[in-house]
Design goal:
This is ABC transporter ATP-binding protein. The chain is of the alpha/beta class. It has 13 helices and twelve strands. Among the domains are: about 105-160, no CATH class; about 245-325, no CATH class.
Length: about 325
């Protein structure tokens, strides 16, 4: 059963040079107790689509149209104090850089106590006790001592564990993880991912996991949505994306080919996707990926493909989703 359903979401930003369509007709869902991974290059609309859920947009941003159904309620219509009650309580966020997300002038204990006092109306003494327990739950050693420290006194991995503890403080139904391991080294990243998987199993929390790293997606996600230029270009179960199958979007294929593999012969270079993501104020006429796609035809450059169902639980936005057909020379 879907806990979150985003349907045809359009999120725009007004700038001096024109309207930036950061999210342009996005649809995806997150099932209860499951993880949806959203992957794509910088500027693809991953974070904006997620921040639209809680309306954490810049002052020039707005939801132009579409629905965000969470637990049977359309969040697109929720405003003001009602949205504040949802943030941190029913839906929480782990941000990309913990050092800028934590307030440097307050102790960990004070910052971690706040969700309990605001949302659960605990006393300061009860909240501080619960804060220590949350630090213990995310496997921070000596939590009583860490609670008295300031963010700059902790390592990057410890700060990210604190952010996870804050996000899970009120046992939210949905956790939005916005590239939570980007600033961490590989060893600490593995620990954080393992911790998040353990907490998901223990608490049954649904996760919307945003990243540009397909390796992380393979480890974390149940389903994957690939985004490009503010649109979902492919969505399927993780085993379909990473397994051997007959269908894929050329952009997904390019991302897969760019991953280093142990079985790659010596001296063979990784295949890179040519070009760059187009400027949001100067998008191509047809398929947004056509200028970078080695399979693009005149049809691709003139017409924009719809997101269509290829097989069960697998949708692709491409005129030539079958690998065998496009590799036969449809240029």
């Amino acid at each position: 059963m879907a806990l979150l359903e985003i349907n045809d979401l359009h999120t725009f930003f007004e700038t001096k040079k024109g309207t930036v369509k950061a999210v342009n007709g996005v649809s995806y869902s997150v099932d209860e107790g499951k993880t949806l991974g959203i992957v794509g290059e910088s500027g693809s609309g991953k974070s904006v689509s997620a921040m639209s859920i809680l309306k954490l947009l810049d002052g020039n941003g707005r939801i132009d149209s579409g629905s965000i159904i969470f637990n049977g309620r359309d969040l697109a219509d929720v405003k003001g104090n009602d949205m504040c009650k949802i943030r941190g309580n029913d839906i929480s966020v782990i941000f990309q850089e913990p050092m800028t997300s934590l307030n440097p002038i307050f102790t960990i204990e004070r910052q971690l106590s706040e969700p309990f006092m605001v949302h659960q109306k605990m006393s300061k003494k009860e909240a501080r006790k619960q804060a220590v327990e949350m630090l213990r739950s995310v496997k921070i050693p000596n939590p009583e001592s860490v609670a008295k420290q300031y963010p700059h006194q902790l390592s990057g991995g410890m700060r990210q564990r604190v952010m996870i503890a804050m996000a899970l403080a009120c046992q939210p139904k949905l956790l939005i993880a916005d590239e939570p391991t980007t600033a961490l080294d590989v060893t600490i990243q593995a620990q954080i991912l393992k911790l998040m998987n353990e907490l998901k199993k223990e608490r049954g929390t649904s996760i919307l996991f945003i990243t540009h790293d397909l390796g992380v997606i393979n480890e974390m996600a149940d389903d994957v949505a690939v985004m490009y230029c503010g649109q979902v270009v492919e969505k399927a179960p993780v085993r379909t994306i990473f397994g051997k199958n007959s269908y894929s979007h050329p952009y997904t294929e390019g991302l897969m080919f760019s991953i280093p593999r142990l079985d790659t012969p010596a001296g063979v270079r990784l295949e890179a996707i040519p070009g760059a993501v187009p400027h949001p104020l100067d998008l191509p006429k047809g398929c947004k990926f056509a200028p970078r796609c080695k399979y693009a035809t005149d049809k691709c450059r003139e017409e924009e493909p719809e997101l269509v169902s290829i097989e069960e639980n697998h949708v692709i936005r491409c005129f030539y989703p079958e690998k065998g057909v496009r590799s036969d020379g449809k240029k």
